[in-house]
Amino acid sequence: MAVRLIGYGLSTLRDPRPAEAGALLAAGCHAVFLDITHRTSSPRPARDAAFRYVRPGDCIVIVRFSRFASGLRNLHDLLHQLDDARVGLRSLEEPIDTTAPDGDLVIRAVDATLQLQAAWIAEVTTEGQAAARARGQRLGSPPKLTPEQADLARQMHAAGHPAPSIAAMLKVATSTIYRLVRQPSAPDTAEDSAP
């Protein structure tokens, strides 16, 4: 039984490509799904429809990967989704065909690239954090309240004011006040504790 070829293309409003559908039909696709969008990161209802349409043994044909996936992580996920469904993927402009005898190399190469990218980002992030700490920079989100506001919130809560009203007065979330009153207050400074 011949492999069914299902075409998928993407046209942006800035770069309409009616020729893309023609190229997919010329490649022998018996059905073509085409998304038309204003940017490549937009939802892809036609691609989703193509994924629902295919059956095991089919092959999705694309013009090139940049019009199929919105990035490396998305490409990784789509390749694995197709592989799990036993559906191939072939690009017309790139020498990539997962139905070829060595087609699993494409998936393994994307997996390895994604792992390398994640390791690289983690290493750069760790080095950047270490350098920031060495310069004395505080990491993480800035505190929601100044030390004075935090002291005021603790005093008001101890005096019986409800957390939601304290939060409204200080323009923070109620959960911020609850977290604050559960934490021990900062130790008194020598100046504060001096007789």
User: What does the overall shape look like?
Assistant: elongated
Low-pLDDT segments, ≥5 res: 186-195
Q: What is the succession of H and E elements?
A: EHEHEHEHHHHH
- Return the average pLDDT rounded to an integer: 83
Number of helices: 8
CATH class of the largest domain: Alpha Beta
Kindly give the count of domains.
2
Portion of residues in helices?
40-55%
Biggest sheet descriptor: 4 strands, parallel
Distance between the termini: 94 Å
Strand order of the largest sheet: 2-1-3-4
Annotation, overall tally of beta strands:
4
**Sheet/helix structural class:** alpha/beta
CATH architecture of the largest domain: 3-Layer(aba) Sandwich
> Over all CA atoms, what is the radius of gyration?
28 Å
Which fold name fills CATH's third level, the topology of the largest domain? Rossmann fold
Oligomer: single chain
β-strand percent reads 5-15%
Task: Please tell me about this protein's structure.
The chain is of the alpha/beta class and 195 residues long. It folds into two domains: 5-112, Rossmann fold (3-Layer(aba) Sandwich), CATH 3.40.50.1390; 142-182, no CATH class. 49% of the residues lie in helices and 12% in strands. It is built from eight helices and four strands. It has helices spanning 18-26, 45-53, 72-84, 104-134, 147-158, 163-170, 174-182, 190-193, and strands at residues 5-12, 31-37, 59-62, 88-91. The protein has a four-stranded parallel sheet, with helices on both faces. Helix 3 links the parallel strand 3 and strand 4 (88-91). Helix 3 (72-84) packs antiparallel against helix 4. The radius of gyration is 28 Å and the shape is elongated. The protein starts with a strand and ends with a helix.
